[in-house]
Design brief:
The structure is a single chain. This protein is mainly beta. The chain has no helices and eleven strands. β9 and β10 form a beta hairpin. It is elongated. Strands 2, 4, 5, 6, 9, 10 and 11 form a seven-stranded mixed β-sheet that branches. The model has no long low-confidence stretch (mean pLDDT 97).
Length: 121
């Protein structure tokens, strides 16, 4: 079995910072793309940031210059550093990874359990 386990989110004041992490565990051959999504109440889940195995990053426009995604392949972990947080960043954040297991020829998409981030004074 493969699991993605996210760190706790929390309550942050506007302008504050928070760092999320997501660690993959289990029998893993290779982790390809990794990313963070978020879903606010009443809205669709959206891609916030992604990072390829080669380190190429992409961000949704609303977080460019404020958020930074990174990965540590030795730890099978992806991070999301969130700075200058705004109330509109409030959402449940989910990590995502394309993982190939040794017993499969195919990559499968895995999701974390989600963690609440609330930006409020």
């Amino acid at each position: 079995q493969v699991q993605l386990v996210e760190s706790e989110g929390g309550l942050v004041q506007p302008g504050g910072s928070l760092r999320l992490s997501c660690a993959a565990s289990g029998t893993i051959l290779r982790i390809n793309g990794m990313g963070w999504y978020r879903q606010a109440p009443g809205k669709q889940r959206e891609l916030v940031a992604s990072i390829t195995r080669g380190g190429i990053t992409r961000y949704t426009d609303s977080v460019k210059g404020r958020f930074a995604i990174s990965r540590d392949d030795a730890k099978n972990t992806v991070y999301l550093q969130m700075n200058s947080l705004k109330p509109e960043d409030t959402a449940v954040y989910y990590c995502n990874a394309g993982i190939r297991r040794p017993d499969s020829n195919y990559e499968r998409n895995y999701w974390g359990q989600g963690t609440q981030v609330t930006v409020s004074s």
